[in-house]
Amino acid sequence: MMSLESVILTKLHNALGKEACLSVENVSSQHHGHTHAGNESHFLIRISKDTLPNLNPLKRHRMIYKILQDEFQKTHSIEVNFE
C-alpha cells in the first residue's frame, strides 16, 4: 500500500504533468501531541507558480483542492504553497 504522501504526489503529477515542479512533505512529526496528530495527518505541498502560470492564486488553489478532494478527507491539514 502506498503512503498518503506518495498518493498525493502521484495524483498531482498525473493531473499537472510529470514535468510539474512540485514537492510533497509529510510534516506530521511537527504536530506531535496535537489532537489530530498521526503519522499521516499534516502535509506541506510546494508547487512552482510556473506550473499553472495562467491561473490566478485562487483558481490555482481550487484546482489543487479538487485534485486532492479525497485526500483532504483523510488528513487533518494539507498546506499548499505556490512559490
UniProtKB/TrEMBL annotation:
Q: Which family does it belong to?
A: Belongs to the BolA/IbaG family.
One Pfam match, given by its short name, reads BolA
| InterPro entries documented for this protein | BolA, BolA-like_sf
Q: Which domain of life is it from?
A: Bacteria
Organism in which the protein naturally occurs? Candidatus Xenolissoclinum pacificiensis L6
Name one process (GO BP) from the record. Answer: iron-sulfur cluster assembly
Q: What is this protein called?
A: BolA-like family protein
* Signal peptide residues on this chain, from the entry's feature table: none
For this UniProt entry, which segments traverse the membrane? none
